């Protein structure tokens, strides 16, 4: 991978986003708005503190998946990728450039959502705030990487959106948000064990409950980061210049 080309790609994407303030505002503020809505749905700080950590993983993951899959597909359908790939730039350079750009947006998104949750919404945690933000940011990067991978298999923006119920929704349903994973049937528990969002939710919940880091927590972080890197590598292997 050429770092110069990756940074140039990231700079180009950020420049495009700068000229689309409405999209940036939606990406940065939507998770926070959803958490505010959730806080008033529960109407108690205790209930909100029990559910919010998992949703700090789910909301950025889902939003970044949609944004990156549609954006990358649009670059291909408008022949932008085809023109870029006539230059001496590799597929990994392009995908890591997208990841850097959207990763920076995701970090801002997580900082805003976490800050609002801890101050205004009354989220209570026993662990480190910085670890909470790190895990949420890693999960947003995972959504970005999976969105880049999914865009390689879509021909239209409508198809890209349809990948959300196929890739994102099963992970949300099986990550332990609605029911403990240990109480699921063996088949569903096995499926939840192979889905990276489950490990992100487990890591966030362990941070909110305790200030101590154990081997399971480190394992969860490694799995989430490893799945993000694997998705980027697979995305580079399947990236096409344009949609036929």
In angstroms, what separates the terminal alpha carbons? 27 Å
Count of beta strands: 0
**Could you give the order of the helices and strands?**
HHHHHHHHHH
Structural class: mainly alpha
Shape field? globular
Number of helices: 10
Determine the mean pLDDT.
84
Low-confidence stretches: none
Largest sheet: none
As for the number of domains, it is 1
Helix content: over 70%
Tell me what portion of residues adopts beta-strand conformation.
under 5%
Please give the radius of gyration in angstroms.
Answer: 18 Å
Subcellular location: Cell membrane
Keywords: Antibiotic resistance, Cell membrane, Membrane, Transmembrane, Transmembrane helix, Transport
Pfam family, one: ABC2_membrane
Protein name: Transport permease protein
Give me the secondary-structure topology.
Blueprint: H1 3-18, H2 21-42, H3 45-77, H4 80-84, H5 91-119, H6 129-151, H7 157-174, H8 186-193, H9 196-209, H10 215-238
Helix pairs in contact: 1-5, 2-3, 2-5, 3-5, 3-6, 3-7, 3-9, 5-6, 5-10, 6-9, 6-10, 9-10
Transmembrane segments: 21-42, 48-73, 94-123, 129-153, 160-179, 217-239
Protein name: Transport permease protein
GO biological process, one term: response to antibiotic
